[in-house]
Amino acid sequence: MLHFDPLRQSLARLRPPRASCGRILVLLTLLPSPAFAQSITTSAEPEAVSLTVYRAPERGERPIDKNWPSGYALVTETRTVTIPAGESLIRFEGVAEGMFPESAIVTGLPKGVREKNRDARLLSPSGLVDAYLKREVTLTRTSKATGQTREQKAVITAGPYGGVILQTEEGYEALHCTGLSDRMRYGGVPENLSAKPTLSVITQSDSAVTVKLTLTYMASGFDWQANYVAQVKGPEDGAPAPATGKEKVDIFAWLTLANGGNQSFLNANTMAIAGEPNRERRGAQARPTGGPLNLTCWPMQRTHQVLYNLGYDPYLYAPPPPPAYVAPMAAYMEADAEAVVVTGSRMKNAAMAPVAVVVAEQEDLGDLKLYRVPEPVTVNAKGQKQVAMIVKPGASLDRIYSASVNDNYGDGGESYPTAILLRGENRKDKGLGVPMPSGQVLVYEDSRYGPLMAGQASLKDRAVGDEVEMLVGTSSDVRYKVTPLAESKSKRTFRIELSNARNEPVNVEVEFPFELNGKPKGIAKVDGIPTWKVTLPANGEATLNYAVKLR
Amino acid sequence: MRASWFLVAGGLIVAAPLLAQSATSVAIPGEATAQGDVAVTIYQNGQSLVQDTRKVTLPGGRHKQDFPDVSAQIRAETVTLTGPGIGIVEQNFDYDLLTPAKLMEKAVGQTITLVRTNPATGAENRVRAKVLAANGGVVLQIGDTIEVLRDDGLPVRVIFDKVPPNLRARPTLSVTLESKGGTVPATLTYLTPGLGWTTDYVTLFDDAKQTIDVQGWVTLTNNTGTDYTNADVLLVAGNPNNGGGRRNWQTPWNGSTETIDEAGTESNERERLGDYYLYPLGERTTISNAQQKQVSFLDVKAAPARSTYEFNNGWLATNDAASASSVLKFSTSRAGGLGDQLPAGTMRVYMRDKRGDPQFIGESGIEATPMGSAMSIRTGEAFDVKVKTVVAERTRVNNRRWKTRMVYELTNARNNPITVDLGQNGLWGDVKITEQSLEGKRVSADRVEWSVPVPANGKATLTATFDSRY
Questions:
Q1: Which CATH class is domain A397-434+461-549?
Q2: What pTM was estimated for this model as a whole?
Q3: Residue range B264-301, pLDDT digits in tens
Q4: Does B81 touch chain A (CB under 8 A)?
Q5: For testing the chain A interface, which of B53, B124, B146 should be mutated: the one with the most A CBs within 10 Å?
Q6: ipTM of the complex
Q7: Rounded to whole angstroms, how far apart are CA atoms B226 and B81?
């Protein structure tokens, strides 16, 4: 068996005549070679890790993409390595695969870091062929008839792009164009190929030492948001009815954190940052090389072969849902049982928010807000984690039925539902008064069947003192209708009719985002927009005429 | 004329209780669901709230509890767990799934067993191999040499010594909690998509008596990938927000179905959740995955209704005998109507033919309608009722005003007299009607309406003269 050292050969290939040139030497130190007496130390995993997660800057109020969260994290790892005297290369394994290598900082080495590299030449079928180009491999040929194997030496003449050509004693052959079973064996692993993209540093030491070093880097594939649970409390039995539209709301929030990568972080000191640190576009990155071997042969279709391509994966798409079933007329039937069952799982006035024993602590970090999970937690690979972050029972919010009219002339006369809003101020005296990071809000309301979801709203970042407003849903019972009445050169006159099919009074706000003619009674400007605030009596109506100024 | 909720699924689609029985009797042991007392609240916007009260036995102190058999589409961020004496430390939802690719990826650096089968003799040959990398092909070290797994296409079995930790068969929900220990009922609440309901109204119109019989049917569909066993089901009619902010208001830009003429202001004893109406199913039921279930919720007999015709004409529009729309008008009030709220859905109208068999005559979507509303359902175009509109005269009176005379010819090929509600749109506030052959009603600045009687097998002509700026 012919034996050779592929690395020596590749070095020989790479080394130009001016081998002593410093710049090239630096390049070559990556390839371990006895000439440089560089030893390799591998640090497999951190002993302690802390993880600070930042939100996806462009996500706004949309939910996290669990499969590839588009925020990022700052990872700080403590690792212990033993390095020998002289020059050594330390490889770091078990880092987040979304690492931004340009952000990595290694501290704690006795003489610092001379060089920091990230190698993304991957050990793979094509990477092997590339490394063994013009060199000898062993071909093992198996006879399907007898099961006998035959070994043969071959030299890779061309490859890996567009196929592999081998030179054997008998001449030149194309790999896998034979219809026979051939496999290639290589003499060793080219050491400049790695199983995963790897960060390594080169350092120097006067003597063999064991050091505790800190690796800090930023990585993509993380995200977080707040998930609020807002429970509108029903009136207590026997308590006097509250003023129209005044609600008590228990507010609870989860800190929801997602790790979309394949690396878990055990017992991590975990934090989340609210606010928007500026981020710039990253420069060009070295793309990983290697991958499957794409073997193309000469055309091999036989006479009877017709290319058949289904064009889609029949299992990828579920069949369309069956068409809605039309109840046949024959199904008319008599029955008048009116049964209502209340079971244990539907409990009136039950709390929707859990009792949290661990609540993330908030502190200010410059102009950002930092939330710290008070004890170490494990952030799993491809996992979503929730820890309580805000617990504010009994906040005061107003329930408002809201409409915003348009001045389109033709489409008046239709009845429209109003929007249901919960609105309040983020102030201590209103039962809030904490920074509220953006996220989704689940609004629950009490019913005879216990608290049920009444809508899903979203919330932007709300500082203390800001107005907090949640759109719960639309009300089919509180409606409005706009009818155009007349038009002159200077104005268009409309009538708006409000109706309330609820058996309790409601507060309605109608916005007129136009300049109105005159000062109609009951309309006042709110944030510059003329707004009609009116309380509709139970099962009642209200009407207002107004005129929009024309240019 | 009484509306009532009743529970009979009636063997429509749910059918075959016998079949269901035999299916459960052959259930594989251990397949029993981990679900407890399940309450499912289903919304019309495709979201459902699942409240699942399970008896869990907890050791005292801190404990990580897994919750299997939740919806396969669970929205993990909406999960809450409550129960007596239970305090929550953290919740985790892990979706790193065990797949062949993942198994191999996590085996990098470890040693596996290869079993090579001789293609001719079937003899097996075992070797140990170290997995070096799995980037588009598995690179193995066997003894001193390197090769790629199954490079020659021959059969090789790969046997792993163990399954890596943290890889799961299904996405797994787990809650780390603190408790005093013991068996307690813990209620798990979450939202899931894939479970929804729609409403269909079957309306039988009696032309002679001018009445309607209306049945409301609810169709439940479960595409969550999970069965909900013996569940307490509650339907919520209404339009909860689906996550948007203030500027994503669903009104009024989602359009109106134009079926509410006059919004009602009546209320009844129906259970409510804030502004939504609740429709409980009277008995517990099992909602199986990929199942569609129908239940009736409204049954009103002989409510007064009126069939009429409607035709809308645009400004200066000429039509060569276009069909008028057939319209069915009725009320949802307690007195003289359906006496209930109507959840949004589709109303299909049927009439009996000469043999007495119901035939479909048209349908219309309806939006959620309060009780006490006046409604118009447009079922289609009338074959026998036509309207011809002609701009008979158009003259410029001066440089600011135009005179327009419209002639509307209405024909009725039916053998009964009818009334057509004829509307002329596009009047912009300042168009004046200087002459009309029948007194109309200016319902808005933009529109005038006439109720034109047309005799049986006859015709009627209406003329109107407008004074306009354009």
A1: mainly beta
A2: 0.81
A3: 999 998 888 988 999 988 788 888 888 888 888 889 99
A4: yes
A5: B146
A6: 0.81
A7: 20
